[in-house]
């Protein structure tokens, strides 16, 4: 059973995951558009990797909490 703090964390994680998924999709669409200069494309690819890493971390924690409830 989840504690009050874990329930709040679980709810926050759901919102964070949704926001990161949207950010990831926007970055991927922008990178696939072919309209970015090389340097900006490089910067966006770094940002995309950071978003994906954060998303993986939050999804893993969400899964841990969901198994506890």
Q: Would you tell me the structural class of the helices and strands? A: mainly alpha
Q: Give average pLDDT, whole number.
A: 97
**Approximately how much helix is present in the residues?**
over 70%
Q: Which runs of at least 5 residues are low in confidence (pLDDT < 50)?
A: none
Approximate strand percentage: under 5%
Largest sheet: none
The gyration radius over C-alpha positions equals 15 Å
User: How many β-strand stretches?
Assistant: 0
Distance between the termini: 5 Å
* Count of discrete alpha- or pi-helical segments spanning 4 or more residues: 2
Supply database-style keywords:
mainly alpha; elongated; 69 residues
How does the SSE layout of this entry go?
Blueprint: H1 4-32, H2 38-68
Helix pairs in contact: 1-2
